[in-house]
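Hi, can you check this record?
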Amino acid sequence: MALHRSALKRLDTAFHREVEAGRLPGAVLRVWHRGREAHRGLYGCQDPQAGTPMREDSVFRIYSMTKPMVSVALMMLVEEGRLRLRDPVAAHLPEFDAPSLGVLQRDARGRTRLRREPLPPTHPATPTVPLVHDLLRHTAGLTYGVFGHSPIKDAYLAAGVESGRLDNRAFSERLATLPLVAPPGTLWEYSRATDLVGALIERLSGQTLGAFLQERLFEPLGLRDTAFHLPPSAHGRLAQAFPTCPYTGAPVRLLDVSRPPVFESGGGGLVSTADDYVRFARMLRDGGRWKSRRLLGRKTLELMTRDHLGPALIAASRVPGASTGYLPGPGYGFGLGFAVRVAAGEASVPGSVGDYHWSGLAGSFFWIDPVEDLAVVWMMQAPERRELQWALLKSLVYAAL
């Protein structure tokens, strides 16, 4: 059965209303259902300050929606036997051969100090060193220096790993000097792990991350506007956020993508369009195939889109005070690059057990629901409204089934 037209009209009305109310600068939507495009939406402005209308081919900074693409790229190398998920990270990035654990202590004056301790000895059955598997599921003990504050996060900032001025090799070598926030495999912590996956791809392939992605993923899928920077000819299609946050008045600063970056960030550096990304999503929905070409094995993709945390690890990661918080949220686990729904209830949005998704800092979002044969891509540049718009989108799309 096709999606209900009346419900899709309500969806369009709702997002046009968000634009008129000043809560949404603009957005592009693609909905695929049962192998066919069921709906496309175009809302608001590409550049709200200039009043430039949104275009079907507007380009967006997708930030962490880079992660699923880079995770798929690494699994291509796994399928070639170049590495295994159970390999220690140090087997391929030897700078990680002596990781340490960051322990917080208070001195006599009550100040918090960061002390390093060695990780417990490795046992073959329960490795305590970071594994490739840990990088993909964010359990390697890494973190982000830019979300929240702690002595370890401050160390990230001081070391320059958040600066964007290091290439992937230098980034990996610098990151290896920093302590872990938790023993590997004990905590889900959103982190620079997928950036390290990018460095791993470079080390194994002998190519830059951008070149590998272009050859193995973007070119086969026919992605014309997905890259780590925009050529000058496309600068006029780059979507912008509101110049200031509608709620705080603070300036909104997004990633400069006008020139090739020093750091090709596997965790958040790509730009893309709705039409490009929906091709990637359709390939995932079709079990790793695009038209007549097989890009990834069906069973490999099934492995990636299953929960790899389990109830105990999810519970440990949701305790108050966890560094970045458990971003997948209630009802979701995490696979190898995607949040994965593990419960029909708990989450505050509709969906199916087994649906999977991820999103970007500036508001891009996609999900795939294998049960309903649904693939949805949403592109916007509105960091301050992203979670509210995502929840609205999921409710309205599922209301059309």
Summary: The radius of gyration is 21 Å. Residues 87-189 form one domain. Residues 324 and 338 are 17 Å apart (CA to CA). The first strand starts at residue 26 and ends at 33.
